What we know:
The structure is a single chain. By secondary structure, the protein is mostly helical. The protein is built from four helices and no strands.
Amino acid sequence: MNASDWLDLTVLERKKYNYLNETLDLTQQIGSALDHNDQISLKMLLAMRQEPIMYLEELKQTIQARRQDLPPEDQERVQALLSGASPRTQEESTFIQQAATVVRLLQRVMELDRAVNLRLTGSSSIYNKK
């Protein structure tokens, strides 16, 4: 893969990070609105949080399409890096660092979402269903 391909993939991961960061911020604000029993802010924040989540879904499809456009050996290399292979170039290193940052942020968003969802919906939470 050339440097431009790695840059494209890294930029897409950065966009994912930005949308996740926005989602995290809004989720934190939702928790605060719950703390203050502010129903108006809660409804507004829930509606606002939907937008970055929809953009994340669109971005996921864009990333999948971009990876599928790569030659099979490049697809395998991307997957190998995401599975823990060592980077061979600076471009690969930059990509994998950004991807790892996204994974860590996603974990934080999921943990906070779980906590807020359980507070908001109690026993009917999607996290209580198996």
